[in-house]
């Protein structure tokens, strides 16, 4: 897909920034496992955080496609920088920009554009991963707001993010209303009371962003901080997932960037490494590996671009295209980074080599943001034109509903 002149200019500005500012920091961020506040400041200064925020709120009104162009360039060198750009342009931020009140949008815009915040999206729980709709976190109606109790885990940015979009079951007078999004802004330990950052979950890759448990202990959310998604709580989860499709495209782009970066390293090494008195690039076994890697990366990029440019029924990227893009990009990243490491031989296996980091970084994308299996369910459901319930009694309930309708 051709880029317009403006898009090509944005991509090359992002590339120059990534080469000069991001690449030199990547290894150190991984080694120290610490959140790169210096990079956050530089990314914010360069206008790459909050670029999708409307101009009226201080952003650039950039499209998700624009964001994708930037994210790939960052992730080519550093997956952490790529993921920060995803969460500061998509995910929770996208949901607030689409559904939020004017005050909520202003708050989110000020946090991201002014403070370089990377919002956190709090969906997953220890007993509700793929089966996210089985979450147990409850928001109980109280005077003037809601009180949330529950435990989330694997929350990206736990302890560094300020804005938290918390998914919880809304319960009023003991009756469940559906799943909603509740906004909390963390200013530090104990602020607000009840938003407790739990233990860090030490991860295999993308180590510069903390993944943590987030405990919600009688966290009070005023009515003004409930995200008023269309359809109310009854359609709350679906509406939040509509917005979440953008983050799936973002995650696919980080995977794509890692794969593209690994391919660059593999080509460079194949040209300079000599064995048997000749560059290893002269061996057909290596040439065909490189060719297959390039085919896979180009295919993933085409799919990611198609998804990023798409518009589903509710204005966000199309759910099926987002799922297809993430499946392909994530699996491509796993394969291509491993093949790139293979081309580097023992040097690639060394810890002070970027290949080892890229293999680890690539691994998360078939898991986080909807596993490759769950996303295949979504694609299959679309192909077959059937809802595909995954619970044991799911088909029975479908049959009962059909019988009742006849
Ligand atoms: C959706 C699932 C949780 C399966 O659960 P259910 O079988 O109970 O749900 P469904 O009936 O299929 O869906 C409920 C509701 O949501 C709508 N929906 C579902 N998926 C989408 C979508 N992609 N886009 C738009 N709408 C969607 C569906 O139509 C229903 O709507 P109505 O109620 O009928 O109106 C499960 O399939 C699933 O997706 N699990 C993965 C959970 C997940 O992605 N978690 C991500 C956590 S955040 C994260 O990992 C961040 C990492 S990174 O930075 O990316
Ligand atoms: C690095 C990282 C960052 C993350 N960041 C966040 C975040 O910021 N916010 C957040 O809310 N969550 C986050 N998550 C959590 C992530 O969304 C979940 O890990 C993911 O949804 C899968 O849930 P699970 O790990 O509990 O796996 P499970 O759901 O327990 O799945 C285990 C295995 O069973 C398979 N499986 C499950 N159900 C089915 C089915 N119906 N059909 C076929 N196979 C199935 C899965 O594909 C998987 O292979 C993150 C995870 C990681 C690893």
TrEMBL record:
What is catalyzed by this enzyme?
Answer: 3-sulfinopropanoyl-CoA + H2O = propanoyl-CoA + sulfite + H(+)
Q: Which residue numbers delimit the Acyl-CoA dehydrogenase/oxidase N-terminal domain?
A: 4-106
Return the PROSITE patterns for the record.
Answer: ACYL_COA_DH_2
GO molecular function term, any single one: flavin adenine dinucleotide binding
Cofactor(s) needed: FAD
Q: What is its EC number?
A: 3.13.1.4
Family of this protein: Belongs to the acyl-CoA dehydrogenase family.
Task: Return the NCBIfam families for the record.
Answer: SulpropCoADesulf (NF042439)
| This protein's name | 3-sulfinopropanoyl-CoA desulfinase
Q: Which organism is it from?
A: Elioraea tepida
